[in-house]
Design brief:
The complex is a heterodimer. Chain A is an alpha+beta fold. Chain A has two helices and eight strands. In chain A, strands 1-2-6-7-8-5 form a six-stranded antiparallel beta sheet. In chain A, strands 3-4 form a two-stranded antiparallel sheet. Chain A is globular, with a radius of gyration of 15 Å. In chain B, the strands form two sheets. Chain B has a six-stranded antiparallel beta sheet. A two-stranded antiparallel ribbon of chain B has the order 3-4. Classes of the chains: A alpha+beta, B alpha+beta.
């Protein structure tokens, strides 16, 4: 599910486990992901990528079939800086699917899910417009 | 960051391109700075590794989010006395259009400059400024010079 996503491969995302409506994804530490060279802490944007992708997979797992989706919005709260050299895990849960929209919540953490680095909530558009496989007609 | 601290100590302007180049993840993404006086435009050069959906193809949502966050941070370094890199507290990103496989631009505005926290809005666009592909709003912690 991640092999065909160039940016996921470029940063090193890997799926840990999936179940109905749930995905766990990991991101190994890498010097190139650092956002503050003084501390070695990864850039907040890397956490965004991890959470966005993990949420997308959770939506796919809730739908149970391959349908084109697009992130509508994503809200991220940063609770603490990630610890340098440690891999980061993300767990996302798609808790509601409607005709057009899927709702997801997620968190990123090192080992203890109850001590998060960041939490996120997001909404995803189903059968996203502009997609070749989409039923709805492209407008842009 | 030493570079930032030194510029603050000397009371000189911060070299934003040098600052961005000193951040490994920004270099990895390929972010450039275009500064004309007080006006700052950030540029994200297209590269295949930034793609999130190869079917469309479209830029990864995380890349667009990271680019907007970096734009907000650069604007804060430009306009505040921050002696350390501003830290995001929370951000919200609205994805308005899919990011095409071309260069992307972004600008940020500081909506409210508090003593410890700043509220920032940023917008990214591609070929037409009036057709933004994504918008960010967020709060950032600022640590001023002691």
């Amino acid at each position: 599910m991640l092999d065909h996503v160039p940016h996921a491969k470029a940063v090193g995302l890997a799926i840990v486990s999936v179940e109905k409506g749930v995905a766990v994804v990991k991101l190994p530490y890498d010097e190139k992901l650092v956002g503050n060279p003084d501390t070695g802490v990864v850039h907040g944007g890397v956490i965004t990528t991890l959470l966005d992708n993990c949420c997308g997979i959770a939506v796919g797992m809730a739908l149970g079939e391959m349908r084109p989706i697009a992130t509508l919005d994503l809200r991220i709260d940063y609770m603490k800086p990630a610890t340098p050299k440690l891999e980061i895990l993300a767990r996302a849960e798609c808790y509601k699917v409607t005709a057009n929209i899927a709702f997801v919540r997620a968190s990123a953490y090192h080992a203890d899910a109850s001590d998060p680095i960041a939490t996120a909530v997001g909404a995803f558009m189903l059968d996203a417009a502009g997609h070749p496989k989409s039923k709805s007609k492209a407008t842009s | 960051m030493e570079l930032l601290q030194r510029a603050r100590d000397q009371g000189s302007k911060v070299d934003l391109q040098a600052l961005i180049d000193a951040i490994p993840y920004c270099r990895f993404l390929g972010i450039e700075v275009d500064r004309k006086g007080s006006e700052l435009t950030m540029i994200l050069r297209f590269d295949r590794k930034l793609i999130g959906n190869p079917m469309l193809p479209a830029l990864h949502g995380g890349v667009i989010g990271a680019f907007l966050e970096t734009t907000a941070i650069a604007q804060l370094v430009l306009e505040t006395e921050a002696a350390e890199l501003p830290k995001p507290v929370d951000i919200g990103i609205d994805y308005l259009r899919s990011g095409k496989p071309v260069d992307t631009y972004a600008r940020a505005v500081i909506t409210k400059h508090g003593r410890r926290v700043c509220n920032v809005r940023a917008e990214a666009w591609q070929d037409e400024h009036s057709r933004p592909i994504a918008a960010l709003h967020g709060h950032f912690l600022i640590k001023p010079k002691d």
